[in-house]
Amino acid sequence: MTAMQGVFLFAAGLILWAAFMMVTRQNLVHAAFYLIMALFGVAVIFVLLDAGFLAVVQVLVYIGAISIIMIFAVMLTRGDVIEEAPVNKNYGWALLLAALFAFGLIILIGQWPAVASLAGEIDTSRDLAAELGVALVSPEGFVIPFEVASVLLLAALVGSLLVARPQKKGK
Amino acid sequence: MPLSWYLVLAALLFCIGLYGVLARKNAVAILMGVELMLNAVNINLVAFWRYFTPDLIAAHAFVVIVFAIAAAEVAVGLALIISIYRRRKTVAADEINLMKW
């Protein structure tokens, strides 16, 4: 077993364990910390796949921003739900569906011959971040999806401000 | 190592996230499950990029757009949850039945 495989198995085990703990914990703050652990494992996987820039963005955006907003929301909505069961009454069906889905996906992956292919050599001297930056704003690249994503983010920010605004006194 | 390792990891992570979305009671926990599913998609995208098209940059562009979508989803979702919590003092997804009729 090479060192890369060892790192992969460690990161994969960490991700799956943390994700499992996240969906089963009763205390939501603990669940948020397990979510951060799983997201960090995904960043390690990105590094293994030679996508270092994406790993940095993963840590910045997911762990730095999204998880912190999650923890904020958990603390702002401390209701009586903490003392109750963490799952609803249909969790058996959910478990069955998720297990069937995992089983089917793994069968499908096993039937596809290309999954045995190995990674080829990659030119490590390339500046992937600069290439991505050019691709996101060039008309031959992804300028339309990039602009659509920007408008979506703006609309989401304005919409969330509008939704979460305190109610007026008269209403 | 073969591509299948990454695909199996992503499939399992996606299904754990799916279970979280379907079974959790707290609406914030449901959003966390959605984040897990989006991360599984990102692992798949980057793995396919590395194994099949390492000369192109398309997969990176899509992963960055998935990051943006995840941020937008969390912003709107948490605003809705906090707004509902203010009015109804609950974040349990099975008690928020105001769109039922």
Give your account of this protein's structure.
The complex is a heterodimer of chains A (171) and B (101). The model of chain A has no long low-confidence stretch (mean pLDDT 88). Chain A is mainly alpha-helical. Chain A is globular. Chain A has six helices and no strands. In chain A, helix 1 (3-24) runs antiparallel to helix 2 and helix 2 packs antiparallel against helix 3 (52-76). Chain B is mostly helical. Chain B has three helices and no strands. In chain B, helix 1 runs antiparallel to helix 2 and helix 2 (27-52) packs antiparallel against helix 3. Chain B is elongated, with a radius of gyration of 17 Å. The N and C termini of chain B lie far apart (53 Å). Chains A and B meet through helix 1, helix 2, helix 3, helix 4 and helix 5 of A and helix 1, helix 2 and helix 3 of B.
Q: Please trace the helix and strand order of chain A, writing H or E for each element.
A: HHHHHH
How big is the Rg of chain B?
A: 17 Å
The fraction of residues assigned to DSSP E strands of chain A is: under 5%
What composes the largest sheet of chain B? none
Over all CA atoms, what is the radius of gyration of chain A?
Answer: 21 Å
- Structure annotation, total helices of chain B: 3
How many individual β-strands of chain A? 0
What is the chains' assembly state? heterodimer
Low-pLDDT segments of chain A? none
Q: Structural class, judged by helices and strands of chain B?
A: mainly alpha
